[in-house]
Design a protein that fits this description.
Structural class of chain A: alpha/beta
Order of helices and strands of chain A: HEEHEHHHEEEH
Shape of chain A: elongated
Strand content of chain B: 25-35%
Number of helices of chain B: 6
Number of strands of chain A: 6
Shape of chain B: elongated
Strand order of the largest sheet of chain B: 5-2-6-7-8
Largest sheet of chain A: 6 strands, mixed
Largest interface: A-B, 18 and 17 residues
Helix content of chain A: 25-40%
Strand order of the largest sheet of chain A: 1-6-5-4-2-3
Helix content of chain B: 25-40%
Radius of gyration of chain B: 22 Å
Distance between the termini of chain A: 63 Å
Strand content of chain A: 35-45%
Number of strands of chain B: 8
Oligomer: heterodimer
Chain lengths: 220, 204
């Protein structure tokens, strides 16, 4: 009767503590679905121009995989930057619509986008931050064995923004912001038991569902 | 006696640590790059890439060697093909001939490497500094243009040192191509030469 208390405690911590809160905010100039023709693609690109961070490639891949199950085709980041090399490298990529419009005045770039059937570009920006670490854990090795004792926790915050550009009409179609926060724990009971919050995956799921709802509503 | 039993593995671990820290890293970058999306101008150029440039091995520090020769030849050939409608790649200045408008000789001035142990950042960074000596077919110098390029890994987490340096170098080479495409015709000396050429009616 003494043993179920410990697993119950751990399970309660896992369920209660590791849960995350995800908020999805979006802005669209219209409630109309975004038209996407048969064979047209949506490209995903992460921002790389900031010096201190890069948009997490795992997040970009996760979003690409989520959207891949949609009715439209998704072009991966590497495929997209290779197809339009060197105009979407960190040094050259347009950060604003004004720059995109200027870039699209080049007929060879326009033609390449038309030939590759890239209709929309999803610009991703954001990162995952950890902060507020508390608690203490110590691990040791002795003749009788090894073990960790103690408890530590930290907060994780994933914040991502996606901007959807129409590469044909050269307009901004949507802007989505996802915030996901949660707390991770490691409990040292001889073996360290990690109870990690999955904020990045939650943010990816929230953003993916939102994007899918825009594009999958109407297929031309 | 017990202490002696523990000593042997400890000494072995310590030796492995010391050897590991002092080991040399040799990275071979054999990446091919995408064709550039650009309309080349009506200019013919000879690109002089000698054996030293083709087999170039960067030594950013005493323990690291990065073989970038073949990758930089591929990158620069493709980039210049996006700038000029005719590019002839030659191995020496003498082979450039007189039928071209420009003769361009690229060389590597310097390479630098920054690792997490030096910068305390979780990334590997590579800088490659190129110099492009640009002259007319007659040997009249136009400019010696400095072309810096930068690349870094997104994060070095779970990457081996070799893979991380290779990835950062590929990003730096792509950056060199991007800067070349973006800025070549903005070089004041090139702009001036183009103006002169247009005034002389040489440009169709």
């Amino acid at each position: 009767m003494r043993f179920p208390a410990l697993p119950a405690l751990v399970a309660a911590a896992a369920l209660g503590g590791c849960g995350s809160t995800t908020t999805v905010d979006d802005f669209r100039p219209t409630a109309e679905p975004i038209d996407i023709g048969v064979g047209e693609k949506v490209a995903i690109l992460g921002r790389r121009d900031a010096g201190h961070y890069e948009t997490d490639r795992d997040f970009i891949e996760c979003l690409g995989n989520r959207l891949d199950h949609s009715s439209f085709q998704v072009m991966s980041e590497q495929e997209f930057i290779d197809a339009l090399y060197p105009w979407f490298e960190p040094r050259t990529a347009p950060k604003h619509l004004k720059r995109l419009k200027r870039l699209m005045q080049d007929p060879v770039i326009q033609e390449k986008i038309r030939r590759e059937k890239i209709r929309y570009l999803v610009w991703l920006d954001g990162e995952v931050e950890s902060h507020g670490m508390s608690g203490a854990m110590s691990c040791g090795v002795g003749p009788a064995g090894a073990g960790c004792f103690g408890y530590t926790s930290w907060d994780k915050n994933a914040m991502f923004e996606a901007i959807v550009w129409d590469l044909v009409d050269l307009t901004e179609e949507a802007r989505i912001r996802v915030d996901s926060e949660g707390t991770s724990y490691v409990i040292g009971l001889v073996a360290p038991i990690p109870l990690l919050t999955r904020v990045e995956s939650q943010a990816c799921s929230g953003m993916g569902e939102q994007l899918q709802s825009y594009f999958s509503q109407e297929v031309r | 006696m017990k202490l002696r039993r523990f000593m042997a593995p400890l000494v072995m671990v310590a030796m492995a640590q010391l050897c590991g820290c002092a080991s040399n890293v040799s990275v071979r970058v054999e990446q091919t790059f995408p064709e550039v999306v650009a309309i080349p101008r009506e200019i013919s150029a000879a690109l002089v890439m000698d054996q030293e440039f083709r087999n170039y091995v960067a030594r950013p520090n005493s323990t690291t060697r990065i073989q970038i020769g073949s990758a930089q030849v591929d990158l620069l050939t493709k980039a210049f093909n996006g700038l000029f409608n005719e590019v002839k790649v030659v191995s020496s200045r003498e082979h450039a001939g007189s039928g071209t408008d420009l003769v361009i000789t690229p060389s590597v001035r310097e390479t630098q490497l920054s690792t997490p142990s030096e910068s305390y950042l979780n990334v590997y960074e590579v800088w490659i500094k190129y110099s492009l000596d640009i002259e007319t077919a007659d040997g009249v110098p136009i400019d010696s243009w400095f072309l810096p390029a930068y690349g870094k890994t997104p994060s070095s987490y779970l990457l081996s040192r070799t893979t991380a340096i290779e990835q950062a170098t590929i990003v730096a080479l792509r950056d060199a191509g991007a800067k070349l495409m973006l800025d070549f015709y903005r070089i004041p000396a090139i702009y001036g030469w183009m103006q002169q050429r247009a005034a002389a009616g040489e440009e169709p």
